[in-house]
Amino acid sequence: MYIIGGTIKTMAGRDIEGGIVRIKDGKIEAVGTKEEVPVSPEQGERVIVVEEGLILPGILEAHCHMGITEEKKGMEGDDCNETVDPITPYLRAIDAINPMDAAFDDAVRAGITGAMIGPGSSNVAGGQFAFLKTKGRRVDDLIVKAPAAMKIAFGENPKVNYSGQNMSPSTRMAIAGMLRRELTEASDYLRQKEKAQQDQEDFSIDFTKECWIPVLKKEIPMKAHAHRVDDIFTAIRIAKEFDLNLTLDHCSEGHLVAEELAAEGYPAIVGPDLASRNKIEVQNVAFKTAGVLNRAGVMTAITTDHPVSLIKALPLCAGLAVKSGLPLEEGYKAITIYPAMICGVADRLGSIEVGKDADIAIFDGNPMEIFTRTLYTIIDGEVVYDASEDD
Q: Is 100 helix (H, G, I), strand (E, B) or coil?
């Protein structure tokens, strides 16, 4: 396949006017000017000509519950929170995500080709997120990375859920204490396992602790639900105590402590800002947060937290962040290369570069603007949405 014309925003430090993208075997084989990439289609090969439009890497959602909290299905389709035990790190999102959820189709139509999906925030340790492509019938075929992060949560959600059941945690102290206890036990388990392997001794596998090993080895981050400043710093405190990687998800009051967060060096996934302030801890939610953090030096992605805000609104949420101070170019990055880097999939996604997956979205303008239409969505080199065929 060839994509010819338009403006190619590679998100790799280069914009190309009237350029060419060559796709072969699901990967990007070449990208450049007409002089750099000769066009010689094989018989039957598709050529997409973009007279005037914007060619982007597929848009990426860094934090959502698409397909695990299904639309239109009530409790029968809600598998987001196992609200009987505050410590459930061994749960795997891939066992609950339904790619037949209508939100996946909405995502594709919006040019969204990948999403980080996982459990909600009712539990202190909620389980393992997975990064998936957005088109297909079987979860196993959509996986880019699984596990991709371990969900942990601070603040109101665990407090409200478990104090209502007359059990811990009912305070922020208990949330932090329970997480520390779990991480201490998991660290001890890993040391014992490694010693047994070194000594070539038998070792009994504990399924409830094995899930922490990629976190402890810093292969995946803890994904911390934290809105308030105090919860944000508690998440950072614990990550530093155990020497772990961390992403600050929501980070709603991050703009109040942007310089401090920049000094700590952890990335933020900001949002959902296109939602009501329906909880005490989100009273300071504002579209300006992403821009304030970005300008301070925090790598910042935008999230809808679907279904809190609908997945198809992701580009518009980035646009509202730009309207509130996020630089335009950083707005593009906040829904492409930054989420790819934060979610650990930048080796395959997030930019139009040779060797990466051919996941591309083509628009008739800036997707952060309300009237812009998606013309094509391409995943693994296959056109999965073509506006000219839309009913």
A: coil
User: What does the block give as tokens for 290?
Assistant: 């992403």
Q: Are strands 2-9 and 47-57 parallel, antiparallel or unpaired?
A: parallel
pLDDT value for 390? 80
Which residues fall within 8 angstroms of residue 230, CB to CB, at 6 or more apart? 172
Cβ contact 58:99 at 8 Å: no
Q: How many CB atoms lie within 10 A of CB 100?
A: 11
And the tokens for 387? Answer: 């506006």
C-beta separation of 216 from 190 below 8 A: yes
Spatial strand order in the sheet of 143-153? 59-64, 112-117, 125-133, 143-153, 222-226, 246-250, 268-270, 300-302
Burial class (CB within 10 angstroms; exposed 0-12, middle 13-18, buried 19+) of 74: exposed
In which residue ranges of the chain is pLDDT below 70?
Answer: 391
Tokens 């060797």 correspond to what residue?
A: 355
Write down the pLDDT at residue 391. 61
pLDDT of residue 179: 98
Helix spans in the chain (H): 102-109, 139-142, 156-163, 172-198, 207-210, 213-216, 229-241, 258-264, 288-296, 314-323, 328-333, 337-342
The answer to whether the predicted template modeling score (pTM) of the entire model surpasses 0.70 is: yes
Report in angstroms the alpha-carbon separations of 276 from 230, 236, 282, 284, 286: 21, 27, 9, 11, 11
- Residues written for the chain: 391
Please say whether the beta carbons of 147 and 220 come within 8 A. yes
**Does residue 149 contact residue 118 with C-beta atoms inside 8 Å?**
yes
Give the tokens for residue 221: 């981050």
Q: Rounded CA gap, 108 and 54, in Å?
A: 16
Sign of CA dihedral 110, 112, 118, 124: negative
Is the Cα dihedral 385, 387, 388, 391 positive or negative?
positive
